[in-house]
Amino acid sequence: MSEAVLTPRHAWQPLTPRGVAAFAPATFARLFLAQFAVAALVALAVVWFLHAEWFPVVRAAIGKLPADSLIQGGTLRWPAATSAPLAENRLLSLVVDAADAGETGRSADVTVVLHKNYFKICSLAGCWRVAYPPAWRVGLNRPELEPWWGAWHWPVLAVVALLVMVALLAGWCLLATIYFPFAKLAGFFADRELTWAGSWRLAGAALLPGAFLNIAGLFFYSIHALDLIHLGLIYLLHIVCGWVFIAASPFFLPKESALAAASPNPFVSAPQSETKPEQKLENPFGSSGPPGGDN
Questions:
Q1: For 146-159, what is each residue's pLDDT tens digit?
Q2: Do 219 and 243 fall within a single domain?
Q3: What is the number of structural domains in the chain?
Q4: Domain check: are 159 and 121 in the same one?
Q5: Residues 256, 156 share a domain
Q6: Which of 50, 56, 94, 203 is deepest in the core (most CB within 10 A)?
Q7: How far, in Å, are 40, 93, 178, 225, 242 from residue 35 at the CA level?
Q8: Which one-letter DSSP state was computed for residue 104?
Q9: Which residue from 263, 249, 261, 257 is spatially nearest to 6, judged by alpha carbons?
Q10: pTM to 2 decimals?
Q11: Is 290 part of a structural domain of the chain?
């Protein structure tokens, strides 16, 4: 490990322990710029996933809606008491169960079921049930939803991207505040030069490599190379990744003892230069001869 001081100009990539350590002596603005760029990449990945995998299912389901169905007064008003899927793929399924038969099954990773008085979202973790608010009036029919979806699906993606970025930046700020004492402790035991403010910046940068794991996991999940269980494992792994970088990155900072040796000790006086032997000065008021000489 190099003992060279990592100046702020090296703080440009948070993908290695040395790159993360470079953010400790850097400015907060440089850390925020890196976090903003990574958050934008994550938001772009989420938008791409929704547009490629979920939105085609929504579009197909809208095309199969009847012309006079709606949700009003906390009740789904459907032309017939039927139970059938509207549209689905391997990742998302949209189902109407107006008869409350409860036999729709779950063939996709995420299933949204519209019941008579509530809707539920089901996945591996179970089902989340939400009743229709009485104040809702949703035109759940093709004549109303088709033009609305055509006009608003891109703004919806933009809002999703903005929410993802805000959530990530706020979450990283909170986690850095929780983790930075551990980064300071690691720097103390490693005998490294690390201030409290530098520990916070290092902890904030250490969370970024895990975000790239999530991007990779979402990509491989969308191309069906991973299932939902493996995607969840990658999400857990990205948390562990942050801990590993917090523990390892302080070792790439300069040693505290090396900096102390390079600085002069103010309590030790400088060595005095050698002085020449003291020379005897002549007496300017008399001769050099002994007193009491000849008159």
A1: 898 988 999 999 99
A2: yes
A3: 2
A4: no
A5: yes
A6: 203
A7: 8, 34, 17, 28, 14
A8: -
A9: 249
A10: 0.79
A11: no
